[in-house]
Write a structure and sequence with these properties.
six-stranded parallel sheet; alpha/beta; 345 residues; Dihydrodipicolinate Reductase, domain 2; Rossmann fold; globular
Length: 345
């Protein structure tokens, strides 16, 4: 069987990571990439020896020699290219969140089921071994019934002011809490039902970026458990890690804490003190290893073995439904119901 032939839409930070990992993977071949910036297309094609590049992804989708396409555009622009990928008859790997609009997420669920193509949402944290062990621990009943949880994912201000150019078009909840909402759904094996959220716009707005500095949302699940999700991206850049990530789960017979701030490594030099992030993605013996490459690899296996992806389009839809309700609550200052899937979903 030939390698899975990959196309990539979007060549920002994440798109380049997909190109790097898939271009080195023995089960994949990156045959084309696309970006609205022709100079970026030329750069990435040269760097990873990609045969063809396009400034119009529709031309790429017309190619019969592409099996699957990665959608790595900004948070609020996943729907149209993902829809077009599926309509073109190709499998889709979509960066998180699936969409930032529930009606669009529902439409992708419908299209994917009609097309019969594989859709995986890149919630890569499920592949982190401590998180997987947490899932097994809860599933086996070792901490009893889950009563409550807390999930914090806070970035330094470098992320919305320098790292991404589209921070005003998203929020820390879409950008960060999407990972944690997916994890908690997975851990609890229960769907979210309602939410109450609070947020502040102050520091970033003063810098001309009209988005939230911080959001906290308390989400109730069908099981009766409730989880507080915190997301912020205004930590000072002196913080020794780009992201401060922590999860807590409290059960009737125990608890689990997951602290990824250090990832078991700290390092100082003459110029800085830091906690290097190595669990998600790291070069080991010349190959990219970690949870993110494993997530990408399992998408290849789903295609080759005709199995369901580990994170489905429905999983992505449920996260989008929760986040949309969080943002409604921020505006209404009320508890908001999380829209359940349509009957046919």
């Amino acid at each position: 069987m030939h390698p899975v032939r990959i196309g990539i839409i979007g060549l920002g930070t994440m798109g380049v990571e997909y190109a790097k990992i898939y271009s080195a993977h023995p089960l994949a071949k990156v045959v084309a990439v696309s970006s609205r910036r022709p100079e970026r297309v030329r750069e990435i094609c040269a760097r990873y020896k990609v045969p063809e590049g396009y400034d119009d992804y529709q031309r790429m989708l017309d190619r019969p020699d592409i099996d699957a396409v990665v959608v790595a555009t900004p948070d609020n622009s996943h729907f149209v290219p993902a829809r077009d990928v599926l309509i073109s008859g190709k499998h889709a790997l979509i960066e998180k969140p699936l969409t930032t609009n529930l009606s669009e997420a529902d439409e992708l669920v419908r299209i994917s089921r009609r097309s019969g193509k594989k859709v995986q949402v890149a919630f890569n944290h499920r592949w982190l071994s401590p998180y997987h062990q947490t899932k097994v621990t809860i599933q086996d009943g070792r901490i009893g019934s889950v009563l409550a949880g807390y999930a914090r994912k806070n970035d330094t201000i470098w992320v919305p002011t320098e790292n991404i150019k589209w921070a005003k078009d998203t929020t820390p909840a879409w950008f960060l809490s999407s990972h944690d909402i997916d994890l908690m759904r997975w851990f609890l094996n229960s769907e979210p039902t309602e939410v109450r959220a609070l947020g502040r716009k102050e520091l970033l707005k003063s810098k001309g970026i009209d988005t939230y500095d911080i959001i906290q949302a308390q989400v109730k699940f069908a099981s009766g458990a409730f989880v507080t999700f915190e997301s912020a991206w205004v930590y000072p850049n002196t913080f020794p890690s780009i992201v401060d990530s922590f999860l807590a789960i409290v059960g009737t017979a125990g608890h689990v804490h997951l602290d990824r701030k250090r990832e078991s490594m700290e390092m100082s030099t003459d110029s800085s003190f830091q906690y290097p992030k190595v669990f998600l993605n790291a070069n080991v013996f010349g190959r990219m290893r970690g949870a993110f490459p494993a997530c990408l690899e399992d998408f290849l296996f789903a295609i080759r073995e005709n199995t369901e992806p580990r994170v489905t389009v429905f999983d992505g839809r449920q996260v989008t439904a929760t986040l949309e309700a969080i943002h409604r609550s921020l505006e209404s200052h009320q508890t908001e119901t999380i829209a359940p899937p349509a009957q046919e979903d």
